[in-house]
Amino acid sequence: MTYVLNRLLSVILTLFLITLVTFAVTNILPGDVAMMIMGTQSNPEALEGLRQSLGLNDPLLVQYGNWIGGILTGDWGTSLIFKKPIAELLAQKAVASAIIVVMSMTIALCLAVPLGVWAAVHRDKWQDTVSSSASLMGVSLPDFFWGIVMILVFARWLGWFPSSGIVEPSEDFLGALRYAFLPSLALGLGLMAHLTRMTRSTMTGILGQEFIRVARAKGLTERTVIWRYALANAIGPVITIAGLQIGYLFGSIIVMESLFGYTGMGWLTYQALLNRDLPLIQATVVVIAAVVMITNLLVDLLYVLIDPRVKLG
Questions:
Q1: What confidence tens digit (pLDDT) does each residue in 187-198 have?
Q2: Are 295 and 243 in contact (CB under 8 A)?
Q3: Which among 163, 233, 267, 298 could disulfide-bond with 155, CB atoms 3.0 to 4.6 Å apart, if both were Cys?
Q4: CA of 262: how far to CAs of 42, 66, 234, 258, in Å?
């Protein structure tokens, strides 16, 4: 319990620092929020009145306090480009992006764990070489390359999946999964390379330990030794690394959603940056940071369930 409380306090403190940095950086960016709302041909007096009503003439410390107070009370402000409440936009787009993140991680783990185990069991053989080469290729090639390959192969040539667009999960959940599959697969292949190397490295160390030799000496089948004993001890670090890669996914999702015309959180963040929608930029950065940190906390707690030898405290 002490560990959980300490981690929660750490998350809160880190989020506070992130809000400070985000607010400072977005206020350094060039551009006048009032002019972006009313246009460059607006009356100077009207512009000044809008700045006053928005609190843009207040000291930065007061503006920061008002912004944090709005976040805590659910008033995230209004997007300058979409003319909608930011909280409403985030709630709508976060679900769409969550589908991609979950599918990407599922695809990566389902491919990386068997491939890493296969390489570790056949260490220094052709199977290991094939696995290492595939991992190296996955790490070396950028995510947008895999996205282009997915569009050409599965959308244009085979016609199995749409190349762009989105379906709201509330309207058609299976349709939403279909539209999210190709960007998820592209992200999952890139992430798979990192997790395959981690799985191989961890499994190689576990297979050389004494309890594995004892299990084999007892006459257990090789399948049982590998999948029940070795992998059970190796999966913890792999899950931890997978949790840390959530931040990588949210960074890559901005490019991938823009490539596929998938209007989720990544696309929303890109549009905010492109149009200098400062309130929306601030909100998306804080939300993504909060999701990444909470996910890492949950992964740490999950580690204890996977490996009872790890104690909290």
A1: 888 888 888 888
A2: yes
A3: 163
A4: 34, 33, 36, 6
